[in-house]
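We emphasize that the prediction below concerns an isolated chain of 229 residues; any contacts that depend on oligomerization or on bound cofactors are therefore not represented. The input was used exactly as deposited, without trimming of termini.
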Amino acid sequence: MGYIQDKRVSTGELINGTFRELVAIKQPLAYYFGFFFVAGLLTSLSSTLSALATIPLFIAYFAGQLHLYRQALGRGNLTSDDIASVFGFLLMAVILTIPLYIAVFFLVVPAVLLGAKWVMAPTYFAAEEMNVFEAISASWRGSEGNLGSLSLTFLLIWLIWLTMAIVGGALGGGLEGVLGAIGGASRSGIDGGVSSVIAHILPVLLMGLSVTAYKALNDPAESLVAIFE
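Result of the prediction step, given as a token string:
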């Protein structure tokens, strides 16, 4: 059985939906960014603490991401039963990141196209009882007919983040200098905290896009027409 995606979504709808989804979970997002701000601040002050925290923070990142997806989808908090899902999320990231980096090495356009095709995969994984490979495949099929708008939105999200990273990096460095001058200390850790937050903004923006695209395009009763072969 094949499927034809007959729903269409515009770039404007995807951008608006991305930020609407993020506003809807502003409290979990505040906790998420607050945690990684403090983690970035503390680890920037101690190389020993930074080394010890590398693996726990790596796992916390994927647990936090899965939690945000679940919140956006109205599926509640993570529980002890979701440990396997966290590592499944990690596996998905590895599987998708390698070809994306290879695509970026050659040209930006292939990377954007791949990113657009796979952007819904984490939401399929978080929303439905799918394994990693089923979610990736579902995202690939679900993006059919909307690759142009998804690709443009994916690229715009990256540009928005890049702008925020430049501005945030400058502000963080300036604040670090001011606090250092006032307190007489060489480091306050503020720049590390700001850098940590900036690094996490991009995956959060992509999470908003992923959930938005999934909600707009994943309606089997309306958006998928079955073709019996």
